[in-house]
Amino acid sequence: MYQKTVFGIASVFFLGIGLALAQDKAGVEKLNEEYRAAIENGDVDTMVSLHTEDAVRARTGSPVAVGHAKIRSAITEQFKDRDPNYLISVTIHDIKFLSQDVAIVHGGFKAQIGTGHFIRTVVKKGNSWKIAAIQIARDLD
After folding, report:
1. CATH of residue 19
2. What are the tens digits of pLDDT across the range 85-137?
3. In terms of residue numbers, what domain contains 102?
């Protein structure tokens, strides 16, 4: 009887964790889709708002940007000569949860500028996810 009770409690506990992580995965995927749409629309304000206040952004060929003001400046510079019909497709390769409120996202992108990969460290703030760090690198031709 004792073993069945312990097994039952453990099953409910791990099922709860699994459901929480599934919900969190949906939240991380939502963040990634919002970010992709903001890139495609050239919406710098939304892109910046999806970062934490002290986020770090590292992109091949650009200086590292820390914090909203520097990230805004870096994105504005990146978009200054951008095609108004810019399209980007993003594929999420993997989401690894380090805890219930921290995840690492590895993905790839394809756009007019070429293809590449990104790694994002995302953190849960309240009920939403934010980018705490992002590394972006284009593929070599």
Report:
1. 3.10.450.50
2. 777 888 999 999 999 999 999 999 988 778 999 999 999 999 999 999 999 99
3. 2-138
